[in-house]
Amino acid sequence: MAHAIRLYETGGPEVLRYENVDVGAPGPGQARVRHSYVAVNFIDIYFRTGRYPLSLPNGLGSDAVGVVEEVGPGVTEVKPGDRVGYLLGPQGAYSDVRVMPAEVLIPIPDAVSDSTASTLMMKGMTAQYLFRQVYPLHGGETILYHAAAGGVGLIACQWAKALGVRMIGTVSTDAKAEIAKAAGCSEVIVTSREDIAKRVRELTDGKGVPVVYDSVGKDTLMASLDSLQPRGHLVSNGTSSGPVVIDTTLLAVKGSIWVTRPAMIHYATPRAKMLEMADELFALVQAGKIRSEPGRSFALSEAAEAHRALESRQTTGATVLVP
């Protein structure tokens, strides 16, 4: 019997239920995947709490790696025995086996382990589209990146270093600062004792930065705006501290600032684009420029505990569930 985390109502971690489920054969265009690792992302908390709408009852999670067990009629993208990962498709990754649309499955190179790949599907691909598409970095830039010791952040530290980008990262503690520095972050601001915008101005000789990548949201909005150069870009790629509400007049006052709220679906589709993104990511991993392993692991049945750890900011790097 297969197992999955099911959600019948929104709320705290206690609403996550570990249940027996029936998984049938894949239909046309589908593949059945047995998971080895399931990633826990902050967006999962948004769905669990109702911040993002989700029809109920439902599964949870959109990011996992595993092996293809069986494919349905007409599937040409993958075959049984292929190691794959995914970050798009319907909710329900919190499970040990499931049926998925074959078109969203990404082949994993032999040289990349399942444990490494489990930290790269959503998080590594997020770093790719932030740095290579939303505001393309070419080398030589100075940037501000919030939550530099998080799951995406530690990959971003390494990617910035590989590109020759000076990354100023923010973290909440001195311990996280050391982790971010070890991953390649050029300078680190500890938000519990330093003024973000003031420190950015000091580090840039008063100029500010051309782009801020901000996954924190409400708590860092003003600091992000005050750190930008005139006509700078605020990339609001998350709201872990709460939603961002901006008076457009403020954008003019702060220097004619550009703001974007990107979503993966608009950068990783169609399939050819998703595979191109993955190729660039995996190439950096295989070249030794990005190293990534889970920071914390929980059993699938402990999904609620994983959410509590993530929400309380007890984690660094990627958090995964092991079926």
From TrEMBL:
SUPFAM superfamilies: GroES-like, NAD(P)-binding Rossmann-fold domains. It comes from the Bacteria. InterPro entries: ADH-like_C, ADH-like_N, ER, GroES-like_sf, NAD(P)-bd_dom_sf, QOR-like, Quin_OxRdtase/zeta-crystal_CS. Gene3D superfamilies: Medium-chain alcohol dehydrogenases, catalytic domain, NAD(P)-binding Rossmann-like Domain. This is Quinone oxidoreductase. NCBIfam families: PRK10754.1. GO terms for cellular component: cytosol. Residues 11-321 form the Enoyl reductase (ER) domain. GO terms for molecular function: mRNA 3'-UTR AU-rich region binding; NADPH binding; quinone reductase (NADPH) activity; zinc ion binding. The keyword Transit peptide does not apply. Keywords: NADP, Oxidoreductase. PROSITE patterns: QOR_ZETA_CRYSTAL. PANTHER family: QUINONE OXIDOREDUCTASE PIG3-RELATED, QUINONE OXIDOREDUCTASE-RELATED. CDD domains: QOR2 (cd05286).
